[in-house]
Structures are given as C-alpha cells and as structure tokens.
Automatic annotation (TrEMBL):
<dbReference type="InterPro" id="IPR008160">
    <property type="entry name" value="Collagen"/>
</dbReference>
<dbReference type="Pfam" id="PF00386">
    <property type="entry name" value="C1q"/>
</dbReference>
<feature type="signal peptide">
    <location>
        <begin position="1"/>
        <end position="24"/>
    </location>
</feature>
<feature type="compositionally biased region" description="Basic and acidic residues">
    <location>
        <begin position="54"/>
        <end position="70"/>
    </location>
</feature>
<feature type="region of interest" description="Disordered">
    <location>
        <begin position="40"/>
        <end position="102"/>
    </location>
</feature>
<feature type="domain" description="C1q">
    <location>
        <begin position="107"/>
        <end position="244"/>
    </location>
</feature>
<dbReference type="InterPro" id="IPR001073">
    <property type="entry name" value="C1q_dom"/>
</dbReference>
<dbReference type="GO" id="GO:0005576">
    <property type="term" value="C:extracellular region"/>
</dbReference>
<dbReference type="InterPro" id="IPR008983">
    <property type="entry name" value="Tumour_necrosis_fac-like_dom"/>
</dbReference>
<dbReference type="GO" id="GO:0005581">
    <property type="term" value="C:collagen trimer"/>
</dbReference>
<keyword id="KW-0732">Signal</keyword>
<keyword id="KW-0176">Collagen</keyword>
<keyword id="KW-0964">Secreted</keyword>
<protein>
    <submittedName>
        <fullName>ADIPO protein</fullName>
    </submittedName>
</protein>
<dbReference type="InterPro" id="IPR050392">
    <property type="entry name" value="Collagen/C1q_domain"/>
</dbReference>
<dbReference type="Pfam" id="PF01391">
    <property type="entry name" value="Collagen"/>
</dbReference>
<keyword id="KW-0379">Hydroxylation</keyword>
Length: 245
C-alpha cells in the first residue's frame, strides 16, 4: 500500500478522527442549564489530610510590658563563707584635734618595805626580836629600837623570816596587834645548823604593828647569827587600799 493509494488512506483516517472529536465536544451539555447534571456520577470521597506545613519565621519582638508587682519576700538564706579580705584602702586625712581633757589626779606611788637582820645571839623570849642590821628601810617604817614594823599605808602586805638555828630549839611567832598570826618550830639536831622560816600575807590598817618574838618560856631561843650566818626578817606593801587613798 505504498504510493498514492496509501497516502490517500492515511488522509481519510485523520479527517475521520477530527470529525469525531468535534462531534464529541458539541454533544457536551451546558453546565449552566437546569438539566446539565441529570446524568452526573456519584460524589467522590474526601481526600486524606495533607502533611503539616513547615514552621513559619519568628515574628518581631513586641513592645516591653509594664513592670509587675513586687513578690513576697522569700526566707533568709544560709550565711555564706567569709570572702578573701580586700585590699587596704587609702589612708584618710588626719582628724581635728579633740578638746583638752580635764586634769587628772596626781600619780603617787605608794611604797613601804623593809629588810633587816639579827646581830646578837639568843634574844630574850616573849619580847619583840630587835633586828638591827638594816638591809633596806628607806621609808623608816621599821623601828630598829623596838623591832616592830608600823603600818603607815593601809593595804595588803607580805612578811617573811628566815632564821638560823643553833645550840637549842627555836619556837617563834609572828604577831600583829598583840595577837599571834603564825608559829614556826625547829628542833635542833646536835652538831648541825638548822633553818626555820615562815611567810604570810596580811591586811593592815594604819597604825597596826607587826613583829617577831620567841614564843613561850623555856629553852626555845636558839636563833643564831654571826659573820657567816644570818637570821632575817622582811616585809613590803603589795597594793594599797585605793578606797582610802
């Protein structure tokens, strides 16, 4: 079928197809007429939900809101650890001189002390022992002629004695205002030199007297002194009564 005959046949087929397409278009009813859908099909089912769209871009910041009301104060927290000390600040300017103070009472140092020794042997019993070797008696509160210390400054005093014992026993006592305060007794050992001593704190009022003496009758006056052995008596003021002075 090659040649003019074939070409003619193909041309006829194309014309027929074109006429069929135009006829079909002309047979479609007008959708705007009342009877347009009298031969329409059944409604279809809803389609599935589509996938969510992507997040949009962030919007612009809005205007700053008003300040809210102050909240309730919370409980006090635990105390923190001490921090490292800061640097020393700059030195400030000197302040103005203060007002002159009132004149105080004049300072006075109260002194009363003595230290004496014995020069004679075997003093008599029941009378004050007269220590007439003066080591210190600057205030003259000790009287070597009587063997007594006279209180001139009321206060608390310390007294002590150290006695050499030889040939016989020694029993001595320290007196205050004709009353025995303490006793000291030493029993002599043959062919030996002993020591007897004692000390005491006393409160004295002005005019009180203190001394040592051999106590009792009998052979108890073995107090001894020579160029190499001393028997001493001393006393001094610790502190005065400030409410009196």
């Amino acid at each position: 079928m090659r040649g003019p005959a074939g070409f003619l046949l193909c041309s006829l087929l194309l014309v027929a197809l074109r006429c069929t397409e135009v006829s079909a278009q002309d047979s479609q009813p007008d959708p705007k007429t009342p009877c347009a859908n009298w031969m329409g099909g059944a409604p279809g089912y809803p389609g599935h939900n589509g996938l969510p769209g992507r997040d949009g871009k962030d919007g612009k910041d809005g205007l700053k809101g008003e300040k809210g009301e102050e909240g309730v104060q919370g409980p006090k927290g635990d105390q923190g650890e001490m921090g490292v000390p800061g640097r020393e600040g700059p030195r400030g300017f000197p302040g103005h001189p203060g007002q002159k103070g009132e004149k105080g009472e004049g300072a006075f140092v109260y002194r009363s002390a003595f230290s004496v020794g014995l020069t004679e042997r075997a003093p008599h019993p029941n009378v004050p022992i007269r220590f007439n070797k003066i080591f210190y008696n600057e205030q003259s509160h000790y009287d070597a002629s009587t063997g007594k210390f006279l209180c001139n400054i009321p206060g608390t005093y310390y007294f002590a004695y150290h006695l050499t014992v030889y040939l016989t026993d020694v029993k001595v006592s320290l007196y205050k205002k004709d009353k025995v305060v303490i006793f000291t007794y030493d029993q002599f050992q043959n062919n030996n030199v002993d020591q007897a001593s004692g000390s005491v704190l006393l409160h004295l009022n002005s005019g009180d007297e203190v001394w040592l003496q051999v106590y009792g009758e009998g052979d108890n006056n073995g107090i001894y002194a020579d160029n190499i052995n001393d028997s001493t008596f001393m006393g001094f003021l610790l502190y005065p009564d400030m409410d009196v002075h």
